[in-house]
Amino acid sequence: MKRPKMRRTLPSTSSLACFEATFRHRSVTRAAEELNMTQSAVSRRIQSLEELLGKSLFRRENRQLIPDIAAIQYGKDLGRLLGELEAVTTRFISQGHELGLLTVAVPPTLASRWLIPRLNDFITKHSHIDLNLVSKIKRFDFDNEDIDVAVYLGDGNWPDVHLQPLMSDFVVPVCAPSLLNGQEIKTAKDLLKFPLIQHTTRPLLWKNWFTELGIETAKATSGPKFEFHSHAIGAATSGIGIALMSDLVVQREINSGDLIIPFGGRTKFEDGYFFVYPPKMKNDVNAQTFGFWLQQQCASFLATTP
Fold first, then answer.
1. Burial class (CB in 10 A: 0-12, 13-18, 19+), 230
2. pLDDT tens across 185-242, in order?
3. 124-141: b or e for each residue (b if 16 or more CB lie within 10 Å)?
4. Mean pLDDT for the chain?
5. Distance between CA 169 and CA 262 in Å, rounded?
6. Which of 23, 212, 224, 270 is deepest in the core (most CB within 10 A)?
7. What are the residue boundaries of the HTH lysR-type domain, all occurrences included (predicted)?
8. d(Cα 32, Cα 68) in Å, to the nearest integer?
9. Which residue would you say has higher pLDDT here, 121 or 137?
10. 86/104 same-domain check
């Protein structure tokens, strides 16, 4: 059987790197410093390349290295090719879970209002893990989306995934002080005098809230609708209506007085926050490290929340 022909004109990357660095610096000494090699090792690599090519690459004039005319274009081409090789290698490494990258899908408002202000603690403790946070409003789809794990609010009834409970969801009605215009709110029914701001991602939130209080009303599902929680918060702050929000994302506005609680207080719902991941991430150290850290942060948060 005929043996395959070897690629005899393909130099080693080490020899090419030595030549390209020497060509760029016009100095073996500086090339050796850049490549963390000895000058003699760099010189041997260049000599080996010259033997393979059958041509000299440099000539010495007044203690300076001068590349031959053909070597000038060769050096420029190699600089470009080695740069591209380094770029694709770096890109490949950055996509390897075992080397640090962890892509986390998080609802945008939860990320900006609660998670990101706490992230410095995780980054400081686990600097080897590169977090890639992506905003995700609708439910995760690990099969068709480029995400590793997710933080999601819901009932936890999701097949074919692993999940860790983080914390329950407590909601609270909020509105701008100006919306009430001096009107007194004595019962939950009094809230129906005002527009109810709806979340398209949680369309039955108001309905379930009123049902918990024994009130059935068709008005519970009507009112201006917003997909993003941040937009709903903005609408409430602007006096458009009353919003029913997870208390952890409106605490800033409540503390500042931009929003008030017109009736009642925090109400616990069946929905909760979960750390969710597919079976393939079950033994991923980075994913489990992040999940454990999330649980610690949630426990700390709940311990300081009245």
1. middle
2. 889 899 999 999 998 888 888 998 898 888 898 888 899 999 888 899 999 999 999 9
3. eebeebeeebeebeeebe
4. 86
5. 19
6. 23
7. 11-68
8. 21
9. 121
10. no
Domain boundary among 44, 62, 94: 94
In a domain, 8, yes or no: no
Question: Residue 111's CB: how many other CB atoms inside 10 A?
Answer: 19
Clarify whether residues 48 and 125 are in a common domain.
no
H-run or E-run covering 110 = helix 108-110
In a domain, 2, yes or no: no
35 and 90 together in one domain: yes
pLDDT-derived band at 96 (thresholds 50, 70, 90) equals: very low
Q: 278 lies in a domain?
A: yes
Provide the CATH number for the domain around residue 252.
3.40.190.290
Does residue 282 belong to any structural domain of this protein? Answer: yes
- Residue 84: give the domain boundaries: 13-94
Sort residue 239 into left (φ over 0), alpha (ψ -120 to 50) or beta. left
What is the identity of the amino acid at 261?
Answer: I
**Is residue 97 over pLDDT 50?**
no
Please spell the DSSP secondary structure of 226-292, one letter per residue: ESSHHHHHHHHHTTS-EEEEEHHHHHHHHHHTSSB--S---EEEEEEEEEEE-GGGTT-HHHHHHHH
Residue 97 or residue 124, greater confidence = 124
Compute the CA torsion angle 275, 279, 282, 285 (nearest 10 deg).
Answer: -90
To 5 degrees, how large is the angle CA 8–CA 12–CA 15? 125
80 and 121 housed in the same domain: no
Task: Look at the chain and count its residues.
Answer: 306
Reading the block at residue 190, the tokens are 């009094």
